[in-house]
Amino acid sequence: MAITLINPDGLPQVDAYRQVAVATGTRHVFLAGQVAWDADGVTVGAGDLAAQVEQCYLNVATALAGAGATFDDVVRLTVYVVDWTPDKMATFLDGVARAADRLGTTPVPPATLIGVVALHTPEHLVEVEATAVVD
């Protein structure tokens, strides 16, 4: 099985890993978890869960586009939220809705939301990873 690793334009260029792995055959697309960074690696929405969720989903869309996919091709999302409590759901969903409005689509694939103590960068409140299948 051939695997192509890419860092799409519009996402930070990270030396330690690539943002997207594309496996040929039935074309599975595996994304690294996306945080609320802009293309220069600057955190968007510090302290604002909805803004960070929105940026994470926009980054997922950018990574998918780099692999020739869209949210319509996503088969699974995993979302990690720092210090998750159920009362944050409305704010989380606000961020998803804002991203959906900007993307012109409603991302509704199967998903898992996991509460975590922290992410690798203290100001990041959420991380979203996705798997897509194209073809």
Descriptive overview:
It holds the Pfam family Ribonuc_L-PSP. InterPro entries: RutC-like_sf, YjgF/YER057c/UK114. This is RidA family protein. This protein has 135 residues and is α+β, with helices and mostly antiparallel strands. The protein has one domain (3-134): RutC-like (60s Ribosomal Protein L30, Chain: A), CATH 3.30.1330. The chain is 24% helix and 26% strand. It has helices at 49-66, 89-103, and strands at residues 3-6, 20-23, 28-31, 74-82, 111-116, 126-133. A 6-stranded mixed sheet has the order 1-2-3-6-4-5, covered by helices on one side. The radius of gyration is 14 Å and the shape is globular. The chain starts with a strand and ends with a strand. The relative contact order is 0.24.
In spatial order, strands of the major sheet run: 1-2-3-6-4-5
Provide the CATH top-level class: Alpha Beta
Number of helices: 2
* Broad shape: globular
Written as H for each helix and E for each strand, in order along the chain, the element string is: EEEHEHEE
Name of the CATH superfamily: RutC-like
Domains counted in the coordinates: how many?
A: 1
End-to-end separation in angstroms reads: 16 Å
Structural class: alpha+beta
